[in-house]
Design brief:
This protein has helices spanning about 15-25, 40-50, 65-80, 100-130, 150-170, 190-195, 200-205, 210-220, 230-240, 245-255, and strands spanning about 5-10, 30-35, 55-60, 85, 135-140, 175-185, 225-230. The protein is of the alpha/beta class. The protein has a single domain (about 5-255), classed as Rossmann fold (3-Layer(aba) Sandwich). It has a seven-stranded parallel β-sheet with strand order 3-2-1-4-5-6-7, sandwiched between helices. Strand 4, helix 4 (about 100-130) and strand 5 form a beta-alpha-beta unit. It starts with 6 loop residues before the first strand and ends in a 6-residue tail after the last helix.
Length: about 260
């Protein structure tokens, strides 16, 4: 890898918002380390290399302790400082809490929460020691809403939102910035993987992942603390979320996320 270029690390980069964020870094002259568990990571790396950047792919399951440690080992072996860390890997699970499998809900927690904390714990000390670095945490507009029929997913995003804002305060006397990216429903594989194609939100028109990523990249580079990203409709939802009661937001979320099987 070209040690003169800044280095960005992007998790969950095989598709969707993660891939588009990685593309933003490639277009702006960053070398990349990208991580995901699925075979699509190889084609994603090939597409990113077309921008003339060096890309190292690390195929690991970040929902496991060993997966995060393997990624950290690759970063350590590279011997280069991480200039930007994008903690984007995540998964959802739709359905009534009493009907979903415990293993599926536990994986949401392991990937969305545990892996984010784990990798941040490994990378942030080096950034602070150098007094240089940027961190983007993929939260969600869902972090502001009780997630009826997505109860564990929304709660995981609420954790990430709080985690990002706490880190911002702890690091306020350093040059290291932390940005929370809060997209709404976006056109990715998320709803298929979360088994939510039979919901109103699963069938609805969604935001463009490239647009979300471009806005997220710009917010990160500007050092903004958080950004509701995507369309004007999503940004309006972000505004409404600040004034509506939790009871109303939970009811609205149920309307969009409750399975419609047989109806």
């Amino acid at each position: 890898m070209n040690a003169t270029n800044p280095l960005a690390v992007v998790t969950g980069a095989s598709s969707g918002i993660g891939f588009e964020l990685a593309r933003q870094f490639a277009q702006h002259g960053h070398d990349l380390v990208i991580a995901a568990e699925d075979p699509g990571l190889t084609s994603a790396a090939a597409a990113l290399r077309e921008h003339g950047t060096d890309v190292r792919e690390v195929r690991v399951d970040l929902a496991t302790y060993d997966g995060v440690e393997t990624l950290w080992g690759e970063l350590s072996a590279a011997g280069r400082p991480v200039d930007a860390l994008v903690l984007n890997a995540g998964v959802g699970q739709g359905g009534a809490f009493l009907e979903t499998d415990l293993a599926d809900e536990a994986r949401v927690i392991d990937l969305n929460i545990t892996s984010t904390v784990h990798l941040a714990k490994r990378v942030l000390p080096g950034m602070v020691a150098r007094n240089r670095g940027r961190v983007l945490i993929s939260s969600s507009i869902a972090s502001t809403t009780p997630g009826s029929f997505q109860s564990v997913y929304n709660a995981s995003k609420s954790f990430l939102q709080s985690f990002a804002q706490a880190l911002q305060n702890e690091l306020k006397d350093s040059a290291v910035t932390v940005t929370s990216l809060m997209p709404g429903a976006t056109e990715t594989n998320f709803f298929r993987r979360a088994e939510m194609l039979d919901t109103r939100v699963g069938r609805a028109k969604k935001d463009d992942a490239a647009q979300v990523a471009e806005q997220g990249y710009e917010a990160l580079m500007a050092g903004r603390p958080k950004l509701v990203a995507g369309s004007l409709k999503t940004k309006a939802q972000g505004v409404a979320g600040r004034v509506l009661s939790d009871r109303l937001k939970a009811a609205a979320h149920r309307h969009m996320a409750e399975p419609r099987r047989g109806r």
